[in-house]
Here is the input.
Amino acid sequence: MSTEPIRFDTKIAVLLRDDLEPWQRLNVTAFLVSGLGTELPEVIGEPYEDADGVPYLPMFRQPVLVFEATKETLTAAHARVLSRSLPRALFTSDLFATGNDRDNRAAVRAVPTGELDLVGLAVYGPRNAVDKAVKGARMHP
Here is the structure.
């Protein structure tokens, strides 16, 4: 078995608005990354199994880097993600008031792209492209 560190040419990044409450940060992050594996199966690793043979679901094959930023930086990152056509997920402030997937999608659909009140964004793609997209954000403490 190789002891060389595994280096990925892709990156998964989550960008959170810096004024969210702790519970909101966790909730938004969970929602944002939930769609990546269904649309991008290459981000999912192999299933897990413990020493007793109990199986566990597979997880991402690489780390998820979590960043925080101001509302303005998040809006700029969103524009860069769109201009680079990177796979993405978003979470808007309106979604805190809905209680189900249908209402979530309707809330996003009701707002033009430039007027979305973003509180979170997930992005996946080539490492350099993702780095450029989240420029100005800082690693979440």
Summary: The mean pLDDT is 94. Helices lie at 22-34, 36-39, 71-83, 101-109, 127-133. Residues 76 and 133 are 8 Å apart (CA to CA).
